[in-house]
Amino acid sequence: MAKRQRRKSQGRSLPLGASIAIIAILAVAAVALSYLAFQNLSDPNPEGFATTNTAAPESSIPAPAESEEPDAPPEAPVSEQARETEAANAGEQIELVAQSRLIALDGSLGVRADVGECTNPGSIEFSTDGGQSWTPSVAFDATSATQILRILPANGGTTFVVALNGECEPQIYSTSNNGTTWNGPLSAVGTWYLDPASPSTLGAPGGAKTIGCEALGLSPVTDREVGVLCADGSIITTTDGGTTWSDTAPVDGVMALAYSKQNLLAVANGDGQTCSGMQLLNLGTDGGTEQVSCVEMVNLGSVAAGDIAAAQSGNSLVLWVGENQHISTDGGQTWL
Q1: Ramachandran area for residue 18 (φ above 0: left; ψ -120 to 50: alpha; else beta)
Q2: Which residue intervals make up region (Disordered) (predicted)?
Q3: 131 Rama sector, left if φ>0, alpha if ψ -120 to 50, beta otherwise
Q4: Which of 81, 122, 119, 79 lies closest to 100, judged by CA?
Q5: 108-162, pLDDT tens digit by residue?
Q6: Which of 86, 148, 102, 79 has the alpha carbon at shortest distance from 267?
């Protein structure tokens, strides 16, 4: 019995040489695994081990270069009059042009004109109720007058008009019956006028006067006190009939000069804060301005600077803006 047990125990054990061989193999395997692990740790991006966020798959559409930008949708065209209107409603200076409208008052008599051009004659209308209603002067169309440069109404007297004739020369035309019949023409020498063909030279009572800007508007209060609107939006004045002139004085938002025998007035767009619309300004000879009145307007429409004119006589004020007319009989406190 004892011999059988020994044989069974001997069958379970390995020979010494085999055991040594197995130990050697395991040792080599351990060294190999340690080497591979070290290599993986030393590689910043080992294959099969993501150390950063996985990159998104590339698009099949190539990305534009950094300097390229997607095309912006085309802007709708904006008319010049629309730009002027937007600027006017914002209280900004707009591009100035020569006046295509003139209006003047003397008491209840009103005279207004579409200026026209030398090759396209203007037209004149008269009012006997302070501008409430107007009657065209058909007889004026039969004269040799073309472009109208200045109007001087006289209530109960003779109204004078300075206009170019068919040869584009300044002449004086007159009527004593509110445009029913006309006299003239006579030479315009000896009176104030602005000929657009020579905007740096003014006709004046003492002879032609050269000024330091291109004039777009002229407003004689008297023969000696005169204001000139320059193309850059500034105003120059004289108090001695043009012998000397003031320095140019910029006026914010100015659009036209007004007719008045009392004050040197200008029409300017509102500042958008104290006045949303048009304002009448009293211009001082020292370059200062004082608001006489504000005419509130929600929308000026497509009115250009040249389509604006104003006049004063006593407490009566008339503001002509495009196709609309505004009248005040209390010095600008209220408007109709």
Answers
A1: alpha
A2: 48-89
A3: left
A4: 122
A5: 999 999 999 999 999 999 999 999 999 999 999 999 999 999 999 999 999 999 9
A6: 102
